[in-house]
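Hi F.,

I've been meaning to write this up properly since the lab meeting, where we talked about keeping a consistent format for the predictions we share between groups. The idea is simple: the sequence comes first, exactly as it goes in, then the structure tokens exactly as they come out, then a line or two of notes. No screenshots and no reformatting. I'm using this chain as the first example so we have something concrete to point to.
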Amino acid sequence: MKKLLLLVNPNAGKGGFRNGLGEVLLHFHRAGYRTTVAFTDKHGDAPRLAAEAAAEKYDRIVCVGGDGTLGETVSGLMSAEYRPELGYIPMGTTNDSANTLGIRHDPVSAANTAANGEPMLLDVGRFNGERFFTYVAAYGAFTEVSYQTPQDQKNALGRLAYFLDGLGRLTNLTHRWTRVEYDDGVLEDDFIFCAVTNARSVAGVIHLKDDLGVSLNDGLFEVILIRTPESVLQLGTIVTDVLANKFESEYVTLLRSRKIRFLFRDPVSWTLDGEDGGVHREVLCENMHQAIRIVVNKNAIG
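Output, unedited:
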């Protein structure tokens, strides 16, 4: 019988993993897996447990949690020579990775995909040579608003309304001079936001539509850069353009690159998959091409 590790973050989704847990385990049993359940207690447990399962030659690891839990699990797999297939049961706030991969937020449906879906090769981002991210490394204003806004406000206000509701916080932020070195050239400007992505959904707010040609395993990042506007009115225009998928304007640039380096005059705080990425004067993001096999319903991928 094949071996499966169900790696659970019990704090994600207010403990929602309990709902349907019996059916989740039954899906794995019927798919021919002998399931071991492991819980994380603190930051750093998921990568350790994933690496240990890889060393023990598990056939599949299924993580239960938010985007951060998925990112930590991927980090553990990236440290291993042998990498089991990876399944995902989303239990987070934004669930950008699940939205991108077409994985339903219902745990039983997601478990069915994790048990019976098909593996798909997925690019992984490497951050400053030692950390990893699955869908976004970012800094700046929009990152802070989207991740700091409580979920009930997001649900009540809607995407555009809560985004605009955060403009007061945005205008208090200092713009950052940045040198951006990418495959095809160099940019230098003052930016309020940057996202290095391998996703179609970022922070539950930015959605890259199909006509932009986003691929999750082409070896390239999509990089969104937003220059510093001169007024709150212009900032509102930027928000509207981003939500409307207009990424080529005076203030918004979308580029693609396998490798991208950022140089700052002052230290800048980053997030990796919505979690703390540390403070850096220099950042290098590298695309690890098709590094992970993640289990999906290929007919449901957006």
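Notes:
Residues 153-168 have pLDDT under 50 and may be disordered.
The chain has two domains: 2-116, 133-290.

If this format works for you, I'll send the rest the same way.

G.
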